[in-house]
Design brief:
alpha+beta; 4 strands
Length: about 140
């Protein structure tokens, strides 16, 4: 009979649990911001909010109901989708916004990027090959 080390025990305990995902990471960041604000404002309400956010994030990370947590994270990523590039790298997103215009294909909904300043152009969707007019 082999004796398990502490790290092996922790690893086996975490097996089958949700772990961190984008929603739990965002909740932790918001909780951290609330804690920082609470350092200056010293409010009981902010303390309760920060504690609730941390407990919720820990609940999500420790949950074994992977399907429910995956669905919640999917809804969150769908909601935050258009803002994600601005949160990850604002400088690159600004350059992208200056150089290109984005359109949605009327058939399949694929996002199509075209260069700015070309006037009225005919765009072909790379996914479904549908052609549509757009003004860049």
């Amino acid at each position: 009979m082999e004796k398990k080390g502490f790290d092996q025990k922790v690893a086996s305990w975490f097996r089958g649990r949700n772990g961190t995902d984008e929603l739990s990471t965002c909740v932790i960041v918001v909780a951290f911001i609330v804690v920082i604000a609470n350092i200056f404002l010293r409010s009981l309400v902010l303390t309760v909010i920060a504690t609730a956010l941390i407990v919720y994030a820990l609940f999500r990370m420790m949950s074994k109901n992977l399907e429910a947590r995956e669905n919640e994270n999917g809804v969150f990523t769908e909601f935050i989708g258009p803002v994600r590039p601005w949160l990850r790298n604002p400088a690159q997103a600004m350059g992208e916004a200056r150089a290109y215009k984005h359109f949605k294909c009327p058939e399949c909904g694929q996002r199509v990027r075209v260069p700015r300043g070309k006037g009225k152009i005919r765009v072909r969707c790379p996914q479904c090959q549908t052609k549509f007019d757009a003004r860049s």
